[in-house]
Design goal:
elongated
Amino acid sequence: MEISQSRFAEPSDLAAVAEEPLVVHRHEGTRNTRLVLFVHGLGGQRYGPKATWGRFPELLFEDLPEADIALYSYRTLFGRLRFWKSVELEAEAALLAASLRDALARYHSIVLIGHSMGGLLCKAALCELIWDKERDTLARIGGLILMATPQLGSKRMPGFLRFLSPDARALEPHSRLTADISETFEDHLSTDETVSSTRKTIVPTWAVLGVSDFWVDPLSAGIGLPSSRRKVVRGSHTEVVKPRTGSDDAYVWVRERIATSFRTYQYDVFLASAMAGLDSEAKYEAYKKDALAIEQALTKACGFRSVFYAGRDLSWQQFESASLSLEEDVEALRRSRFFLLMYPERIVSSVLFEAGLALAFGKPAVYFVTDRHHLPFLMAQAGDAAVDAGVRVYETAGLPDILKLIELHGEKLWKHRQTV
């Protein structure tokens, strides 16, 4: 469910949204591609006088006009006593993962904020995406902020609750669920956006710890994260997620982490078009013209706001005399969501090196070629190979065909499994 607003406000009819797991508060008159998603914890509430988040969503809605705000709700604790409506936490994680993949598909960057068990639910949903090999969805997760989250379980959880609620069993110290989540994160995710990884998906992660938190001890709340990615603030387990003003320590720190998360992918797509290896200025200008036309089509059809193309501002003479920085090129590729190769003829060019880097970095890739046999053998077969990064090879008759494909499929170009 979506609500378009100029200022954040709870729905006037709370009963009407009670059965809606996901409510998105959109900025009126915008088509934002960034989203902050709140997930409450055990016994938490999305709206009302006892809402988990207090003014948090309202303050972020005002401070981040470039991002929409969403709140996820699910039955917890005594709300699960109606056993015919009860859902195990693992099943709820699958539902949240499906929402990230489908209901929120138009958002290019999503920051998850989970309180207490809600943080565990966020981590479990990311694990579901990993186990299901949903790399396209994982690439859209800009960051994860855990607020008073018992990552190792809670030693304070009353024992009798395990007989009443599957939530309580999941929160037992060193439970099977928390162990599986921790192992999956360690094996498959990099939580530091400043560290390049060719085998792990980057999901920048931080934790907020309450100095007076009775329910979650510091080790459980901050495990796996260095001190630079943890913030200890005043307040109890529930107070850390209820900022009174926009100057509260926890709120300011979280807002800054969100801004960092949105910068993780600086570019929507890295456009690789041959510059080196061309034998004339006329051919260079023709390649450049086609690349700029593709960039314009991507902006229109996919809603991409940032396309990296190294040749955009270089003339033939400038390119011939330029000393292009390999470091800058690699960094731009690492900070791009997608890779696109324009390769209309067999030519020895650095774009083949860039394509290899994109494969190593796990970037979903599209190759536009006139003949797939112009590619080196392994690249030609990449579309059929079981590699971490999805590669789609499209044989086209030239620029008009490429523009038609972009217009027809948009971002789904990177999701087609077959070679065409």
